[in-house]
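Every protein is a chain of amino acids, and every chain bends into a shape of its own. The protein below has been through that process, and both of its lines are reproduced in full.
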Amino acid sequence: MSRQNRLIMPNRRILSLWFPRLGAERVLRFEHHMQDAPLAIVAEQSNMQVITSLNGPALQLGLHVGQSLRDAQASCAGLHTRMRNPAAETSFLNALRRWSGKYSPWVAEAPPDALVIDLTGCAHLFGGETGVIARIEEECRDMGLTVQCGIADTLGAAWALARFSGESGGSLRNGDAIDQEARATRSRAGKRKHWSKGGTAPQAPRSTTPLTGRIAAPGQNHSALAPLPVTALRLDPGTTEQLNRLGLRHVRDIIGQPRAALARRFGKSLLLRLDQALGSVPEPVSPAEAEEHFAVRMTMPDPIGLKEDVMAALDRMLPSLCKKIQDKGRGLRSLRLEAHRPDGQADIRLIQLARATCSPDRIRPLLEMKIEDLDAEFGIDMLRLVGISTEEPTRKKPVGHLQANRTAGEKRTDPALLHDLVSKIGARIGLETVTRRHPGTSHLPDKSALTLAAAWSDPASDWPPPAAPRPLLIWPPEPVHHPASEAPKASFRWRGRQWSLVALQGPERILPEWWFDLADWRTGIRDYWKAFHEFGKPLWIYFGRGAILLPNWFCHGSFP
């Protein structure tokens, strides 16, 4: 192969984006009135409220992440606080990941407040690596976000430059920790005022550094990491503290030490982090899987308000949405209809289906039901259909001709009709309220059947036959006025009425499973009888022999 035809692969370049104020600045995007006020995001940790994020004004007052809320409010009376919402922060970081996809298709999240971008072969599209950082900082500034960037050949080096570029490893012996000082200096250290009591306030970490300090030239990871503190190696706080006590405060101090001695004293994790940062051990960037998004919309030239016009637009949009979902081998399970008005508001309807489907004919009647009370006071200028959840459609197993004929004889109606009926009823009263009964795994009469939502369960195929006939109706046991004998007498009193017995069938003894502790079964062993009387339907009565309660008679149900 000639030198002219040889391909030269570029060095791997990793960009680390760190958003040090992500939690606080996410809240400020919605609460603009607190832009200039100190704001702290608080979370519960070990029965104490601790600060997890701060905005710029709060950092300038000397507050820091990890500080207890009580100490922070003692030094800053006007501090505004909001409870942390981890789910919202995760969603916001996910949105930032999608935004950063314009710079490279290889983007991964580094929770809770960072992104990692494989910038290999992409930087020249934005004016080089310096242009990429400048453009990212400008766009984040427009979004009201603080960002710190680092570019290097490895993920570990880029992570370190984004957070610690321009900082040096300091000593842990600052005079405020009295147990670290010599006896001659303890008295002087004890007289120093704490910063919350008038002493010198701690300095906030730098938010920006020169671009040249945050970009490590290709192949220069060693020189870029050497002056940084050992914390830049992503070590746990305990290991960092031990290294500082031994005087190993910079990365260059660790590089020059014997590896065997470091492994014996600090474990293999220290050497692993060092090798990952220097490039001796690979550390891949694993991007998140692309999310499947199914949505269609139609913008009207003039606002519409008639039901016929809305349905005409939906008839053009729905087949397109179903085609997209069907091409992915999926079926639509829930759908959102958005009707946007010229005043900036939107009327939203949610449609759920009992079974996943891609048939527009099965979805259209549900949409028609939902738009009957659609708010179109100012007209509708844009309609949008969004497939919220999809799943694989129900597939039938292949069977032979004999089984197919038998199945066709048993099921003369299409089962999809039942699913459509459940969907239509669920659109009116909610899918959760449409239920069906399934056999239970207990021999207790009140636990022999389960109530399941019809939209998320299949019809019961086989019901196990009971050991004895069971009543059609069962209610909570009701006391019966009858002498405490093991067999019922000629009559008893129940519900304020005297019942004369004609015939008896039984008894059937039922005991609860030993692992159940049920309040209704504290009567102990039950002997059930089918009691025929002169007024009509037989009753199901039993004699509770008494475990915690006294022996007594009860009525539990009635037969058809």
Summary: The chain is about 30% helix and 25% strand.
